[in-house]
Amino acid sequence: MNDRAILTSDRAGVRTLSLNRPDKLNAFTQAQTAALLAALRDARDDRAVHAIVLRGEGRGFCAGQDLEEFVELQHASPSFSIADHLRRGYNAIALTLRETEKPIVAALNGIAAGAGLSLALACDLRIAADDAQLTLGFSKIGLIPDGGGSFMLPLLAGFGRALELAWTSDRIDAADAHRLGLVNKVVPAATLAVEAQAYAERLAGLSPVAVALTKRAFNRAAMPAFAAWLDEEAELQEVAAHLPDLREGVRAFIEKRRPAFTRA
Ligand code: LHQ
Questions:
Q1: The predicted structure's pLDDT at residue 2
Q2: Ligand 1 atom nearest to CA at 136
Q3: Separation of 64 CA from ligand 1 center, angstroms?
Q4: b/e 45-71 (16+ beta carbons within 10 angstroms → b)
Q5: pLDDT tens column, 61-110
Q6: Residue 115 CA: which ligand 1 atom is closest?
Q7: Contact 53, 105 (CB under 8 A)
Q8: Shortest CA distance to 62 belongs to which of 188, 147, 1?
Q9: How far is CA 244 from CA 45, 82, 169, in A?
Q10: How buried is 44 (Cβ within 10 angstroms: 0-12 exposed, 13-18 middle, 19+ buried)?
């Protein structure tokens, strides 16, 4: 068994990074966000890497924050701050995804939820297996979409559709995600790995200068305030985290029941 948090492989200028906690649908622990950040920075700085694929091992892409670890972190430190947790982990990853001037493709091999979906949306392009599913999930635990999700979702899907997905946390399939502009391409599940590699190889073969400057131009034109927004998003999440719905939502998830949220 491979116990590394992130698996890496290189082929034809493409670096593939695989989230590796398949028994928990690749839910993020602190160790895993730290490893992903390091792996992305390494791929960004490696001159032999011309495109990056991000995928998950097993049947899921990523189920977002590991909620059991989250409870442990809160218990371990009374001064635990969700905003700091976000800034050190998901926000640093989202910024690295945007600032790396190489194409980054998320290959959605299964469910993408919570911060896992936010980070997939912060990649440049998304290719999905036809049986993949997407769900925000945050509202089910009393939170707002974080890790840049509150920015990327309206940017890609439009304001009203984004709000609907964020509020309801409805699970959508790959075909609906494609219709909403959340994924670029849907392929049969059995061929996803091959298709993602071919897609990334094609991008890796383009003019690196044109690719880099186009990404910089799009970042500056469409999301010049992304870094500042990530900070504000983290502060909003801190507000939500001090209210009882988060505790109830997380407890309900762990106890596999429906949450009973506060009604004012
Ligand atoms: C999990 C998880 C998970 C732990 C599946 N944690 N075990 C930032 C800062 C701080 C705090 C909070 O959050 C954030 C950002 C976020 O990402 S918030 C959103 C966190 N994620 C979620 O709320 C999603 C929770 N998971 C689900 O709703 C479902 O598991 C999905 C829809 C992802 C998949 O459903 P199924 O396909 O039915 O699979 P499952 O529920 O049976 O999960 C398989 C296993 O994975 C199961 O473990 P078990 O030991 O019972 O087999 C789950 O407990 C575990 N798992 N997600 N986030």
A1: 60
A2: 19
A3: 7
A4: eeeebbbbbbbbbbebbbbbbbbebbe
A5: 999 999 999 999 999 998 999 999 999 999 999 999 999 999 999 999 99
A6: 17
A7: yes
A8: 147
A9: 43, 14, 19
A10: middle
Residue-by-residue DSSP string for 116-181:
HHHHHHHSSEEEEETT-EEE--GGGGT---TTTHHHHHHHHH-HHHHHHHHHH---EEHHHHHHTT
Mean pLDDT by 10 residues, the chain (264 residues): 85 98 97 98 98 98 97 93 98 98 98 98 98 98 98 98 98 98 98 98 98 98 98 98 95 96 86
User: In which element (H, E) is residue 193 found?
Assistant: helix 192-204
Angle between helices 30-45 and 92-99 (to 10 degrees): 20
Are the beta carbons of 25 and 59 closer than 8 angstroms? yes
* Whole-number Å distance between alpha carbons of 229 and 71: 26
Ligand 1 center from residue 60 Cα (angstroms): 10
Taking CA 90 as the corner, what is the angle to CA 88 and CA 96, rounded to the nearest 5 degrees? 90
CA 193 – ligand 1 centroid, Å: 24
Q: Is the pTM of this model over 0.85?
A: yes
**Is the beta carbon of 166 within 6 A of some atom in ligand 1?**
no
Q: Is 253 in the pocket of ligand 1 (CB under 6 A)?
A: yes
Phi first, then psi, for residue 132 (nearest 5°) are -75, 155
H helix runs in 19-112, sequence order: 30-45, 67-76, 82-86, 92-99
